[in-house]
Design brief:
The complex is a heterodimer. Chain A is of the alpha+beta class. Chain A has 17 helices and 17 strands. Chain A folds into four domains: about 100 residues, Uridine Diphospho-n-acetylenolpyruvylglucosamine Reductase, domain 2, CATH 3.30.43; about 110 residues, Uridine Diphospho-n-acetylenolpyruvylglucosamine Reductase, domain 3, CATH 3.30.465; about 100 residues, 2-Layer Sandwich (Alpha-Beta Plaits); about 100 residues, GMP Synthetase, Chain A, domain 3, CATH 3.30.300. Chain A has a seven-stranded antiparallel β-sheet, sandwiched between helices. Chain A has a four-stranded mixed β-sheet with strand order 1-2-4-3. A four-stranded antiparallel β-sheet of chain A has the order 5-9-7-8. The chains are: A alpha+beta, B alpha/beta.
Chain lengths: ~475, ~375
């Protein structure tokens, strides 16, 4: 925390930049604006613990204001922790070293759609659902549908390199972001032009997409748009085991079919998610498929996919489970009595790997995580031609907070270790934040030094979201 | 602690939610901060319950930044109504003497004048004229806004009810229903007004009580009953009364595009969505154009639960957004069924949108075959 003299000086500067009504030192505001949806933060809040707080919250209204704020913070060497919608799952918005929490929610302008280019330019603080509804009015979709869509912001999508549940077809946010505006720690404002492709050196957009506020503040972006599909068609298949289901997915993508939805639920997750609503063999997996687009093309893709599923040992379950999942896809995001009781904590390790490693990683992680008496259930989703993601979901409950949080950490440590040992990457779309920060070096190997050096050049005073992404960790 | 285990559990779940309803919270829209949101309010209360932090002055302010519109409930799978929870805590805050001072003047006015506008009680409805007839005897509980701020609504209500054959009466003994006090937690004074009104209403001779204000409707039909204050005759909202007599209603000619704003107290809180729509379509002869956010997903007008008293600029910002939503669907006329909503929306509407309360559009239909809205 800052001493009173520095805090006063900083506060005066902030007020002069954004106005008195857009700066708060109130503890209540700092508590309420601090946390994201990291399950460990939520568990600690439930248990009555205080999370680390910023010294003040500042709400900028423009890129120019952000620039001025960063210049002051840089001069005073004060940490700046950006927060968008506060919907991330990795603790990325926690101001663990105090300083300024830079809350982007005021920057919520949606510029007119460029119908010719099928793009839209938006400020970083626009809430995802607000943008999706706006472009829907003109017949478009973002194609980006994370479960957090109602709470997360565009800046947060980009800062965490997020992915939506239809990413198999539409791509992740790094595929959807054409233009990017970033305010650097020294106050300079850079623009990565909105173009479909370029050949002018490395793609600098990609440096900032996923930078989690450690290299600068994302203030505006230009995103791609898609026509709302004429039809979204659903199909479901049960499989006797993970292997056969995964083989079906692999072969569907192998012949060039691009389903919008391809999700394989392992026996535990299938039982949890579908057995109450549909009849299928106990211990079987469930594959959900979705096809977006022209009905005649969907018909062809669905027929070919069904043939593959049958050949791989699947049983047709009709559209039911897949359609139900789509219609209830937000339900699992809500808290329940069970998941918020006592010192319970559940989380997801969303790893990604190529097909040759996926199954081994699944078994290795499941085994490592279950050793801590955790309930582990998984689904393979965000599938692509070369591989995909696994949602390794765990739930653990202990008698005390100390034991609960320690167990949580062990499950993470052992789960990530198993993933890395088997050749996977520890996150597909949730990012690193605080929860994965200590594993970043192991994940990136010698490439971590490149990231560190980039950080040192762009943010020599280490003010930008210190402690996240394995960067700027202080004693 | 004022919350029982069941409510404490709901507060805990809301405090642990990744903000699944925040996008429809009008005060999130107005402030663009995580503080005045359902999750923010629940988190404050949870921390108080488990002993992490006491409610400080800013925390109290956050609780009084809630419109109690219950829009969040529409998006809450565990069905946690934060409005009820906030209101319960407000009661204790008032008891503790920690109510935001901005509400004191309103409470003093209600004590002294029996209305929240510091207007003389004597002039409440002494200007209203009624006629004798042999029709159904309806007692019109006028409500404060219709008689002090939106007099056309009160006058039009009586005229239209009499035109379709009802005998209407009013009483100079009517006091504010108590809604502004119930919603802001001042139960002692609220119940004082309530007891007076119940005594007056039970003594009068009428077949039914009719109200034009959904705030009055909710208080008379729900809050009074919650405190065992029983009314001996049915209470109807004007939309219900008009819909019951829909065949007698006049039909005008409206060349305009008409949309309807659901008042929170009438829609989400009392489940009345269809009656006002049927009446509007009958008297206008046109099909309503619905706004994107409608019925249980309707945005609040910004006027409720003390917000306009404490934070008028934010309340107006919310009202302006609702007006914008009406204009977005090409509406020329925005009808609501609440004098309080009408007052806010009309003030924000500008030149290109006419805002009417339900009795007003019915009377427009009667008075002019071709309603010239321009």
């Amino acid at each position: 925390m800052l001493d009173d003299k520095i805090k006063k000086k900083l506060c005066d500067s902030m007020v002069s930049i954004v106005g008195e009504e857009n700066v708060t030192l109130q503890e209540t505001d700092r508590v309420l604006n601090a946390h994201d949806a990291w399950p460990l933060s939520e568990a600690k809040i439930r248990a009555g613990e205080m999370l680390p707080l910023a010294d003040m919250i500042v709400f900028p209204g423009s890129k120019e204001e952000i620039a001025k704020i960063l210049v002051v913070a840089n001069d005073l060497k004060i940490p700046v922790t950006p927060v968008g919608g506060g919907a991330g799952t990795c603790g990325g918005t926690l101001a663990i070293y105090g300083g300024i929490q830079l809350d982007m929610k005021r920057m919520s302008k949606i510029h007119p759609i460029d119908h010719e280019s099928m793009t839209v330019k938006v400020e970083a603080g626009v809430v995802g659902i607000d943008l999706e509804e706006e472009v829907n009015r003109y017949g478009y979709t973002l194609g980006h549908t994370p479960t957090s869509l109602r709470a997360s912001n565009i800046g947060g999508f980009i800062a965490t390199r997020s992915g939506g549940s239809l990413s198999s077809l539409y791509g992740k946010i790094e595929d959807l972001t054409l233009g990017l505006q970033v305010v650097l720690p020294d106050g300079s404002i850079i623009e990565c032009k909105s173009v479909p492709r370029q050949s002018v050196g490395p793609d600098l957009r990609q440096l900032f997409i996923g930078s989690e506020g450690t290299l600068g503040i994302i203030s505006e972006a230009t995103l791609r748009l898609f026509l709302i599909p004429e039809e979204r068609r659903f199909r479901s298949y049960s499989f006797p085991d993970v292997h056969s289901g995964l083989e079906a997915i692999r072969h569907i993508f192998r012949i060039g079919i691009e389903p919008s939805i391809a999700r394989l639920y392992d026996p535990e997750d299938a039982a949890m998610s579908f057995s109450m609503h549909f009849e299928f063999d106990e211990g079987h997996c469930m594959l959900l498929l979705g096809f977006d687009g022209d009905p005649s093309q969907n018909e062809i893709d669905e027929r070919k996919s069904m043939k593959i599923c049958s050949e791989k040992g699947g049983t047709d379950q009709g559209e039911g489970p897949s359609k139900r999942w789509w219609e209830h896809r937000y339900d699992m995001y809500y808290p329940s009595r069970l998941t918020t009781s006592g010192f319970a904590v559940g989380d997801t390790i969303d790893i990604v790997a190529t097909y040759d490693k996926l199954e081994n990683i699944y078994h290795a992680m499941k085994s490592a995580m279950e050793k801590h008496d955790a309930i582990v259930m998984s689904h393979f989703s965000h599938m692509y031609q070369n591989g995909g993601s696994i949602y390794m979901i765990f739930f653990s409950s202990r008698a005390t907070a100390e034991e609960g949080w320690a167990t949580y950490k062990k499950i993470w440590d052992d789960g990530v270790a198993a993933c890395l040992r088997e050749g996977g990457t520890m996150s597909h779309q949730h990012g690193v934040g605080l929860s994965r920060s200590t594993y970043t070096e192991a994940e990136l190997g010698s490439a971590f030094n490149v990231l560190k050096q980039i950080k040192e050049v762009l943010d020599p005073n280490g003010i930008m979201n210190p402690g996240k992404l394995g960067l700027g960790v202080r004693k | 602690m004022i919350f029982d285990d069941s409510l404490a559990e709901q507060i805990r779940m809301c405090a642990a939610c990744p903000k699944m309803c925040r996008h429809v919270c009008p005060t999130f829209f107005a402030w663009r901060s995580d503080s005045p949101t359902p999750h923010g309010r629940a988190l404050l209360l949870h921390q108080e319950i488990v002993g992490t932090r006491d409610l400080d002055e800013r925390g109290i302010e956050v609780l009084f930044q809630c419109l109690e519109c219950s829009h969040c409930l529409t998006f809450c799978k565990p069905e946690i109504d934060i409005a009820i929870i906030v209101e319960q805590r407000r009661k204790e805050i008032v008891t503790e003497g920690r109510r935001p001072s901005g509400l004191n003047e309103m409470a003093e006015s209600l004590l002294k004048y029996h209305n929240p506008y510091s207007e003389p009680h004597e002039s409440r409805n002494d200007w209203v004229e009624t006629k004798k007839s042999d029709g159904k005897h309806l007692f019109y509980f006028t409500g404060c806004t219709a008689v002090y701020r939106e007099k056309e609504i009160a006058a039009n209500t009586i005229e239209i009810l009499e035109t379709i054959g009802n005998q209407v009466s009013i009483s100079p003994e009517e006091w504010c229903c108590g809604s502004p006090l119930f919603r802001t937690g001042d139960m002692n004074l609220g119940l004082e007004l309530a007891r007076h009104n119940v005594e007056m209403l039970n003594a009068i001779d009428a077949d039914e009580i009719v109200v034009t204000c959904p705030g009055c409707y909710r208080v008379l039909t729900k809050d009074y009953a919650d405190y065992d204050l029983k009314l001996n005759k049915p209470v109807k909202h004007i939309s219900q009364t008009l819909e019951e007599q829909i065949q007698k209603l006049p039909v005008g000619e409206f060349a305009s595009s008409i949309t309807y704003h659901d008042p929170c107290h009438l829609g989400r809180h009392c489940g009345i969505y269809d009656e006002p729509r049927k009446v509007i379509e009958k008297v206008s002869g046109v099909q309503l154009v619905e706004m994107e956010k409608t019925r249980d997903n309707a945005m609040c007008c910004g006027n409720g639960a003390g917000l306009r008293v404490l934070f008028p600029e934010k309340a107006k910002k919310i009202g302006s957004e609702r007006v914008k939503q009406a204009k977005n669907v090409g509406a020329d006329i925005l009808v609501t069924s609440c004098p309080f909503c009408k007052n806010m929306l009309d003030a924000q509407s500008g030149e290109d949108l006419t805002v009417l309360d339900l009795p007003e559009i019915v009377l427009k239909a009667k008075r002019s075959r071709k309603a010239n809205i321009d």
